[in-house]
Amino acid sequence: MNECHYEQKMEFFYNHSNSKTEDDWSGARLIIILVFGSIFCLFIFLSNAMVIAAVITNKRFHFPFYYLLANLAASDFFAGIAYVYLMFNTGPVSKTLTVHRWFLRQGLLDTSLSASLANLLVIALERYISVMKMTVHSNLTKRRVTVLIIMVWAVSIFMGAVPSLGWNCICSLNDCSILAPIYSRSYLVFWSVSNLLVFFIMVVVYMRIYIYVKKKIIVLSPHTKGSISRKRTPMKLIKTVMTVLGVFVICWTPGLVVLLLDGLHCSSCRLLDVKQWFLQLAMLNSIINPIIYSYKDEEMRNTFRNMISCGRNRGRITRTSSRALSCSIEPSRNTEESSISFHKEVKA
């Protein structure tokens, strides 16, 4: 019977796996990482909180697509929490962690990735439903959207907790990986392959949706009235999601490939040299997403602008403050007008 080592500190497992990378995160280098990491995490918190606030306050965003987009922002916000916990439990501190605290550190990261991935899958479902009916927004009820959001977080938390529930190498040291000293290599293979497979499926699905909508718009264009921008509203939403998906795949694929190589026990691969850089690339994903929303979605951009300007005016006289409060829910009318127009044009 294999001996288990739950009472050991992480230094025992780092030494066993010959993982020296944590020693490099010390001194001036660690201070630089903490300073810049804190700045990035602060931006993650503020920007994604603005996305969530925009969806809540702007009635033009009260549609299934934007509810799910807000949930994606919530997963990025959660990723920021995971990065903060990681930053202050890395470097020399890593080896002093208990097994349970290390599981918590990695579990937060795994949960944030699973939440982002699951959200993109659910958004793909919502976009598919809307595309099949050629509408700007699907007719998913708020109750169904709420159930989907709950399912996203339930599955994500479970996936993040799997190693701590037993799929680890604490009782089988020969199966321990290098990058994650108490994760079994078999789990890393499962984790990386399953995520890469989902990446591939989502890319294929969105490409099919994009091609389908583009063909439909070309067919409908000669028979519809209204501005070109209104006809292209469904395509704009799909392009936004495809951009988010593309950035997500670019930011996370290198790290998953490295984990896969570690799981396959690639002894000639210099995995420790690239580990921290790919982790920072993954962190960059949570920073970029709010920028994509504001750049690709004019309605979202205008709402951000109103929220910022209202915040500046809040400390002025009562009349101006009242106006600031009201303008926080005063969006442009592009989305609603586009939705009504597109419905009428398709029915025509």
UniProtKB/TrEMBL annotation:
It is found in: Cell membrane. The keyword Transmembrane applies. Keywords: Cell membrane, G-protein coupled receptor, Glycoprotein, Membrane, Receptor, Transducer, Transmembrane, Transmembrane helix. Its main location: membrane. The chain crosses the membrane at residues 30-53, 65-88, 108-125, 145-167, 187-207, 237-257, 277-295. It holds the Pfam family 7tm_1. Residues 47-293 form the G-protein coupled receptors family 1 profile domain. One of its GO terms (cellular component) is plasma membrane. SUPFAM superfamilies: Family A G protein-coupled receptor-like. One of its GO terms (molecular function) is lysophosphatidic acid receptor activity. It is a multi-pass membrane protein. Belongs to the G-protein coupled receptor 1 family. This is Lysophosphatidic acid receptor 3-like. It comes from Acipenser oxyrinchus oxyrinchus.
